[in-house]
Amino acid sequence: MKLERDLAHFFNLEDALLLPTGYLANIALFQGLRHDFDMVFIDEKCHPCIWNGTAVARMNTMIYPHMDADYIEKEVKKLPSDKNRFLIVTEGTGSVYSPIVPADRYAQIAKEYKGMLLVDEAHTAGVLGYTGRGIREHFKLCSDHYLISGTLSKAFGTYGGYIAGGKRWIESIRCAAHVYQGSSAFPLPLCAAGMKAIDIIDRSPEKVHTLQDMSLKVKQYLSEKGFSLPLTPTPTIPVLFDTPEQTAKLKKNLQDARIYPTYIFYPGGPKEGYFRFALSSAHSQEDINAFLECIDRSL
Question: Could you tell me the CA-to-CA distances from 1 to 8, 48, 154, 202, 232 in Å, in that order?
Answer without folding.
Answer: 11, 29, 21, 19, 34
